[in-house]
Each structure stands twice: as structure tokens, then as C-alpha cells.
Amino acid sequence: MRTPLVIGNWKMHGTLAEARALAGGIREGLKRPRGVQVVVCPPFTALAAVAEVLAGSPIQLGAQTCHHEAAGAHTGEIAPPMLVELGCRWVLLGHSERRKEIGESDAVINLKLRAALVHGLTPVLCVGETTEERRQGLTFTTVEGQLRAGLAGVTAAQVGKLALAYEPVWAIGTGVNAEPSQAGEVHGYLRGLLSELASKEVAQAVRILYGGSVKAENVDGLVAEPEIDGALVGGASLTAAGFTAIVKKAARVGAASRE
Ligand code: PEP
């Protein structure tokens, strides 16, 4: 059985004081989260401060991206060992905003993913189609291409160590989430591909999160889908009340669906 996983992606938000207050509020609101794993991904500048606030709590720390080399002449970049040193255990890779704004290709995302695994970070590989791709009936082709390229050269055992996030681009930050059944269909497709790329056992163990306008009001329906193992949350992770409500609902619905 897969433990639900909820990840907050703070994106480029928060002064140090704001990040500390948000992390403190989440820690306070989730003293003993049961039946759910929780991760927050603050901006790089706030990682050390948030790590201090979360020390000794079950809430884990993640980064929003990383470079694929361990060190070198790469101005402005952050290497996986630097993240590990700060207490990060997770890293988001292939987020659609980075694919679009920074031009990250599948090949680069694959290099990053393999580097993250080597350095002991758990990658969360994000895939998802644009509005136009969905309109043209290319949803499955798009996510399949992103998944196959992202996992190129990754062993079955390594696949078992990562998580996936299905994030339709048209649902990110728009307030329009995918219908649970619509997302569930894509998750099922991705799990089938994982069976092929790794094994059925590995595919059954990998958490596949849904992301795209998740909030406390819609998370129940999404995580009630058997193939949806939690959520990657952007906007609604920026308040402690909103994020903790999502986590609690994901834990409750996850537990109920396992009964
Ligand atoms: C995201 O950026 O990963 C995301 C899902 O954002 P939002 O929840 O704001 O749609």
C-alpha cells in the first residue's frame, strides 16, 4: 500500500521571515501527521532557515530543482550535494514552469534525475500536457515521451526510489483542476508504463501525485481515485491553514480507501 504524499511547492515566494512563519505554521498544524508523508519545497534562499524550523519534525525538506553536476563552473546553479548538506531529501524535477521558462529539455531533466539519485535525493519527476496537446488528443503521447526520456538509463531499482507528479499544464495556477477521473486515467497510464520500464512490483510501489490547482475543497475527490497517491500543491501551499487542511484530508481519504 502506498502512503499518501503531499508536497508543497512554494515557488519564488517568501522572504526569510515569511518562510520561517509558514514553516512554523505548518509544523504547528501537523504535529503528528499520521498515514501521510509531507514535504515542503521552499526557494533555495530559505532552505537553511526552513530546515531549522522543521528540525525534529516529520515534515521533510525538498528543493525545486538542482544541477546535474556535483560542482563546477555553473554560475547561479545549485548542486545536489549542496542540497543534501542543507537537509534536503527531495527535489522536484521537470516542473512545467522550468520546462517553459528556462527551456529545460527532457535530456537535461534526465541528467538531473540521475544525479539526484546518485546523491541520495528523491526526485519527483513532473510530467504533463499543455492545453493544446490535450485538445489535439496528445495527452498520453506527451506524458509517455516525458516519462520515457526522464527515466532513460535509470535502473528498475532506482525507479522504485522516485515519485512522479502528473501536472497538466492547463491546471497549474489556473484554479481549474483536472477532474479526478480524468487525472486517474493518466495516472493509470503512467503506472502501466512504469511496469514496462521497471516491473509490476516497482510500479505498484511508486507514488504518483496529482498537481494543478489542488486545494482543500477539491483534494478529497482527487485522492479518492485509486491511482492518485497524493498531491503536489503550489498556490494553496502558501498558507499554513490551506496546506495543513489538504494534508489532513489526503491522510483521511487515503486511510479510508485502504480499508
Ligand atoms: C505546481 O506548480 O506544482 C502547482 C501544482 O501549482 P498550483 O497548485 O498553484 O496549481
Can you give a write-up of this model?
- With 259 residues, the protein is an alpha/beta fold.
- It has one domain: Aldolase class I (TIM Barrel, Alpha-Beta Barrel), CATH 3.20.20.70.
- Helix content is 45%, strand content 15%.
- The protein contains 12 helices and 8 strands.
- Strands 1-2-3-4-5-6-7-8 form an 8-stranded parallel barrel, surrounded by 5 helices.
- The longest helix has 19 residues, at 240-258.
- The structure holds phosphoenolpyruvate (PEP).
- The site of phosphoenolpyruvate has 13 residues, from strand 8.
Q: In the CATH hierarchy, what is the class?
A: Alpha Beta
Report the CATH architecture. Answer: Alpha-Beta Barrel
Task: Provide the β-strand percentage band.
Answer: 5-15%
Distance between the termini: 11 Å
Which ligands appear in the coordinates?
Answer: phosphoenolpyruvate
List segments where confidence is low: pLDDT < 50 over at least 5 consecutive residues: none
Instruction: Give the averaged pLDDT, no decimals.
Output: 97
The name of the CATH superfamily reads Aldolase class I
Short descriptors:
globular, eight-stranded parallel barrel, TIM Barrel, 259 residues, alpha/beta
